[in-house]
């Protein structure tokens, strides 16, 4: 990768590593559904004008069906699951559990990409890492197990969304796709956000966190990731998933005083090893040039 690609890679890694920290700050004063609706609205207000300037908004009308489905499985579902889940587990553990997403994708794609011995070992290691993280970090805590389960379900939802974009929406311009899904998120959740409008004073840190989630962690991160794919290819761009948890753990430990246990390091190592092995390309028997399907941005 060239210098510009590396800079984009690091930018996306940071922008998708800090949402868990910001969510933790926002839900101190705001309801989870309010946070998700606000994040979607802010991102849409940034992305839709970009799409309008580029003249790509018309693509939404023709692909409204698939964009609506993506809004549910790519943003509404996982955003709510993660935000509610963080009421019961640390932001560090949340970031680590989301890192299992490449393992889930490899498992879901096993029908079209054969499960070699190496990939199977990777899947086993990845799920073993999750077992270590969940079993030791929230052992005996029912609410903790519930929160971890929500985050893992969000990772599955992200994986399904990835496959859906690859197969159904790869031709939709990124700013239009991201703008459409975030706008639909805001519209769908607006009534629930109004119902949970804060009645107590909201601290500035909560509003600031929400603004950063919308502008940086959603709108800017999505556009940067799509540009990274164009410069470096989807395989290299997808490796950003491995670096996000490092940022999440660092912020949680330093600024939120979250515990750093030995199980955190052990589980993270297993998850990363599993992700790396399970996502290794399968050697082609035919001497044909390899082609890469576009991998969409996964909004954290």
From TrEMBL:
Signal peptide range: none
Location of the protein in the cell: Membrane
Keyword Membrane: yes
Keyword Transmembrane: yes
Record field: transmembrane: 7-27, 33-52, 64-83, 89-109, 121-139, 145-165, 177-194, 206-225, 237-256, 262-279
Domain EamA: 6-134, 146-279
Keyword terms of this UniProt record: Membrane, Transmembrane, Transmembrane helix
Membrane topology recorded in Swiss-Prot or TrEMBL: Multi-pass membrane protein
Family: Belongs to the EamA transporter family.
Protein name (database record): Membrane protein
Species this protein is from: Paractinoplanes durhamensis
């Amino acid at each position: 990768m060239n210098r510009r690609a590396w800079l984009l890679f690091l930018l996306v890694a940071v922008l998708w590593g800090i949402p868990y920290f910001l969510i933790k700050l926002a839900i101190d004063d705001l309801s989870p559904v309010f946070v998700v609706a606000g994040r979607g609205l802010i991102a849409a207000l940034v992305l839709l004008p970009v799409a309008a300037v580029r003249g790509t908004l018309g693509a939404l009308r023709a692909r409204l069906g698939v964009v609506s489905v993506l809004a549910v499985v790519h943003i509404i579902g996982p955003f709510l699951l993660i935000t509610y889940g963080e009421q019961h587990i640390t932001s560090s553990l949340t970031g680590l559990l989301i890192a299992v997403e490449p393992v889930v994708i490899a498992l879901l794609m096993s029908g079209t990409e054969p499960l070699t011995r190496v990939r199977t070992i990777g899947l086993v290691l990845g799920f073993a890492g999750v077992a270590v993280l969940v079993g030791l970090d929230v052992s005996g805590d029912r609410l903790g197990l519930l929160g971890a389960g929500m985050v893992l379900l969000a990772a599955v939802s992200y994986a399904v969304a990835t496959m859906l974009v690859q197969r159904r929406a790869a031709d939709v311009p990124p700013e239009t796709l991201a703008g459409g899904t975030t706008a639909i998120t805001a519209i769908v959740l607006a009534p629930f956000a109004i119902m949970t409008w804060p009645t107590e004073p909201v601290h500035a840190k909560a509003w600031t966190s929400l603004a950063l989630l919308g502008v940086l962690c959603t709108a800017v991160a999505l556009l940067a990731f799509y540009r990274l794919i164009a410069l470096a290819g989807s395989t290299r761009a997808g490796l950003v998933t491995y670096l996000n948890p490092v940022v999440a753990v660092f912020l949680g430990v330093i600024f939120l005083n979250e515990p750093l246990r030995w199980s955190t390091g052990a589980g993270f190592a297993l998850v990363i090893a599993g992700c790396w092995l399970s996502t290794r390309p399968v050697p082609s028997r035919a001497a044909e040039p390899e082609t890469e399907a576009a991998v969409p941005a996964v909004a954290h």
